[in-house]
Amino acid sequence: MTGFNDQVIEEFRKNKGKLGGMFEGWKLILLTTTGAKSGERRTNPLGYLEIDGKTVVVASNMGSSRNPGWYHDIRRDHRVTIETGTETHEAIAAVPPAAERAELFAKVVTIDPGFAEYQAKTTRELPVVILHRIDDRVRGMGDFLVEVHAWLREEIATLRAGIDDLVAGRADSLTMEKSLRAHCVSFCEALTKHHTGEDMGAFPMLAQRFPALAPTLTKLGEDHVVVAALQKRIRGLVEGYVYGESDPTRLRDDFDELAGRLEAHFAAEERTVVTALNVTAPG
Ligand SMILES: [Fe+2]
Ligand SMILES: [Fe+2]
User: Fold this and answer.
1) Which domain holds residue 276?
2) Ligand nearest to the CA of 199
3) Which listed residue, 112, 241, 242, 264, has the most CB atoms within 10 A of its CB?
4) Pair (124, 150) in one structural domain
5) Domain harbouring 244, CATH code
6) Which residues contact 151 (CB under 8 A, 6 or more apart)?
7) From ligand 2's centre to the CA of 172, what distance in Å?
8) Ligand 2 center to residue 213 CA distance, Å?
9) Looking at 133, 165, 194, which one is the last position of a domain?
10) Are 74 and 26 in contact (CB under 8 A)?
11) How far is ligand 1, taken at its centre, from the CA of residue 206, in Å?
12) How many domains does the chain have?
């Protein structure tokens, strides 16, 4: 079969995506995934459908009882490459939740009843996969997350400057404490809201669509818990701060620990979830 696959791939690339013989008239793409076990890139010619502007593929394996290898691959690593014959795109492969899958599959069999025949051959529910092209122009939830992080980073810098003033004994103590207290409360509330939104909304949605992301998302969720504990401690220090009595360096040290953890957390989130969020929920 490998020899046959290679031949099809070669013909596909040579003829700009148009194939003759048994594939005459088929809408095909070449999908390149990273092998779940081997870690090596492998390419498969695959029939695809355009549904509501999305590129959709079905892990039919022609009705066999087992999922095709590429489906296992995308569950381990959602980054794929699509070749249309004339263009090559980087993309990410998303597994829609049950209701969306059912809706898509109904449309799939309307367009190509062959898939209903494949489904009838097996007890396995044929997985439907959406291939989202990564387009630099896409701005969505991921970019929104980056913007929120940027704003939170500015808040951190402002708070840190306020604590510096306190340590250096600059500025009028009472005004200083008041503004720090107010600022600290609003910052903590914004941060908690942001993390709750991730925990309740974006992360579970991403973990379902992109199973490969699940372990990372679990870790990021654990960060939220650690950060919340630090926040609570800092809030306690700021609220209980008495000028001339409390130690401002302790507050500064605790704050630096929080700021360091948050920066690492934001960076990790931006590395892992931004692209997935952008293609999933364009703004
Ligand atoms: Fe987060
Ligand atoms: Fe975040």
Assistant:
1) 141-280
2) 1
3) 241
4) no
5) 1.20.120.520
6) 190
7) 34
8) 15
9) 133
10) no
11) 13
12) 2
